Amino acid sequence: MKTRSRKKYFCDGQNRASSTTIDWAKAISVILVALGSIAFFALCTVAGVENTQTDNGSVYIVYILLTSCLCAVCLIHELVIQAVRLSRGTWILLLVSLAILLDLLIERQSFGSYDFLLFYIGLALPGLAAGLLASNPFVFRLVKSLVDPFVLLVTVAVVLFEVNIYASGWWRSLQLGSFGYQTAAYSAAVAFGLNAWSILRCGHEDRFRIFNLTCFRTIRLALLPILAGATLLSGGRGGAVLVLMYCVIVISWVGTGKKHGIAYSILVALLVVLAGGIAFNLVDVSQFAGLDRILNRGDNRSSVIEGALSLFSESPVFGYGFGGYGQLLFEPYPHNIVLDILLCGGIVGLLCSLLYSGWFVFKIKKIGASSVSSYSLLLVIAVYALTFLMFSGTFLSSAVFWFCLSFVTSYCIRDET
């Protein structure tokens, strides 16, 4: 997005003090919407709110409505009051999202048990709006300053979850504060990646002053093995893969000097956790049920993939439309973004997605040339979105997926200091 009213903020990283209440509301709404499920479950766990695990939980619905309304109000302020102009790429993305909405209305009778339309409106579109807000570099700078508090919140929630389920011996059956084992694994993994970004790529000017103190530098390093261990003990395979992906990113971030040693500290922390996991396995892995699931247990995903491929073979060119396969698949969706795209749009849809992906990578590199910090944080979030959709969910109801698309498409590339 392009704006004339924020130029004074782009020149000096210290201008965060000039931000207003509405500016902070925009940054907070970006976090609460783009990382909505993680933020919601973390808040519920810390607050002790129970029985909100399902997508239809009343507390979760209220959360979605409140955060979506906040995001909508902030976006109206950005577009109307701040007179932000949308780029051509943003208009194209908005037209595509509108076309998907219309197709969902047409295909609604074919959805089956999962209401793709409802979750697209409630999750995907707010994620798109959050991406538009964050594409203003000034707003995204405020988002960066919220990463450290968010990581601490998620860490407390995950630790509470792990302590309770293993102390009670009710792994996978206990839902503490709405946390399930998959959510706990992804939450811990995302916090691990955000924490690594804060250590290696976040500038002092992008943090609250208190988080630049020496004690918090030590805390950030200490959180690495805690979050990696929590991911493994939670039992979510997607979360475990996500931590490994973040470790690959950390290796690519290794530079020289002080940061060089910090990066290797991150890798050593992960190796310690993995060594502990192997030791548990040698003793009796069944005592650590989450780790046992990652290493030994299967699920029904192979049969879901076979069913999705069989459906695709019956309509390979154009697919079944968005959500149109709902009644034909014994699962609500195939739990894999590639199969999801093939079922929705066939080979034509996949080719269009690949073309957009090429442009997406090109734009991300341009963002990286403008701001290494913004590029790195976006990379952490985008890898989470992609990894999650390779194992779980559908892109039609993924707020973080649409956030990434909207953010990259709309980001106003300027020199940042």
Written description of the protein model:
This protein is an all-alpha fold and 417 residues long. It contains 17 helices and no strands. Helix 3 (36-47) packs across helix 8 and helix 6 runs parallel beside helix 17. The chain is globular, with a radius of gyration of 21 Å. The chain starts with 6 loop residues before the first helix and ends in a 7-residue tail after the last helix. The relative contact order is 0.14.
Q: How many strands, which pairing sense, and closed or not: the largest β-sheet?
A: none
- The helix/strand order is HHHHHHHHHHHHHHHHH
Structural class, by secondary structure, is mainly alpha
Shape: globular
Count of helical regions: 17
- Gap from first CA to last CA: 19 Å
Low-confidence stretches: 3-14, 170-178, 281-288
Strand content: under 5%
Number of strands: 0
Please state the CA-atom Rg, rounded to the nearest Å: 21 Å
Note the main attributes of this structure.
417 residues, globular, 17 helices, mainly alpha, disordered N terminus
Secondary structure layout plus pairing:
Elements lengths: L6 H4 L10 H14 L1 H12 L10 H24 L6 H20 L8 H19 L2 H9 L1 H22 L12 H20 L13 H21 L2 H17 L4 H27 L4 H8 L4 H14 L22 H34 L1 H20 L7 H12 L7
Helix pairs in contact: 2-3, 2-4, 2-6, 2-7, 3-8, 3-9, 4-6, 5-6, 6-17, 8-9, 8-10, 9-10, 9-11, 9-16, 10-12, 11-12, 11-16, 14-15, 15-16
